[in-house]
Amino acid sequence: MSEPLLQAVNLECERDERLLFHNLSFSILPGTVTRVEGPNGTGKTTLLRILAGLNDAYAGDLLWCGQARNRQRESFLRNTLYLGHRPGIKPLLTPLENLRALMAARRPVGDDTLLQALAGTGLAGFENVPCRNLSAGQQRRVALARLLIADEPLWLLDEVFTAIDADGVGAIEALLQQRAQEGGAVLVTTHHDLQLPGMNRITLGGAANEC
Ligand SMILES: Nc1ncnc2c1ncn2[C@@H]1O[C@H](COP(=O)(O)OP(=O)(O)OP(=O)(O)O)[C@@H](O)[C@H]1O
């Protein structure tokens, strides 16, 4: 069996003196999709931000490829893609400029590839329109285009279905499945009724879960 990419051991997080989760342990294996689920305010975004290294207010251990994540920070960051629950794009820039900026911090990617990714998310013809002039769903699609050029093995995706139409939802579901089939691992929070074959679940807001 493959080694886990990411492991959480007895994670605990409290916010405003309210315990969001405790004794939360799970392993994220290559080739899997895991859905983080639970009612509003139960800590899904908080958990994803902790896993992504954006929130240090937790107790417990996180392991990356079997070793303490904090000692493997560079490898962890290089191999992890996080998309937050806001599209995280710059409204004054065009979709093409946004993608260029997002990839500049990662690796060189030519405009042909970026344009192909934008076309793949249904944005052909909008590549050079300032994002502030795009709809909410189109702005989300700019962020999602990043997935089409991602080579990071671990994806942490927070509410990526928000504002996306039915066809788009189907395309994202297929993409997540394909990523897992290629050996990647996907952790996704969503209120959308995501049902993928073999999908794991981490449920917040009740008893602590293990998977
Ligand atoms: N910026 C903040 N400062 C202080 N507390 C916060 C902040 N953001 C969230 N919280 C608290 O943390 C709790 C968990 O929030 P979080 O966004 O992780 O929940 P969620 O499960 O993702 O919710 P939703 O389904 O509504 O997106 C909230 O109930 C809120 O009380």
UniProtKB/TrEMBL annotation:
SMART domains: AAA. Pfam families: ABC_tran. Keywords: ATP-binding, Cytochrome c-type biogenesis, Membrane, Nucleotide-binding, Translocase, Transport. The keyword Hydrolase does not apply. This is Heme exporter protein A. Gene3D superfamilies: P-loop containing nucleotide triphosphate hydrolases. The lineage of its organism: Bacteria, Pseudomonadati, Pseudomonadota, Gammaproteobacteria, Pseudomonadales. It comes from the Bacteria. It comes from Marinobacter oulmenensis. Residues 6-211 form the ABC transporter domain. PANTHER family: ABC TRANSPORTER I FAMILY MEMBER 1. Transmembrane segments: none annotated. One of its GO terms (biological process) is cytochrome complex assembly. InterPro entries: AAA+_ATPase (IPR003593), ABC_transporter-like_ATP-bd (IPR003439), ABC_transporter-like_CS (IPR017871), ABC_transptr_haem_export_CcmA (IPR005895), P-loop_NTPase (IPR027417). GO terms for molecular function: ATP binding; ATP hydrolysis activity; transmembrane transporter activity.
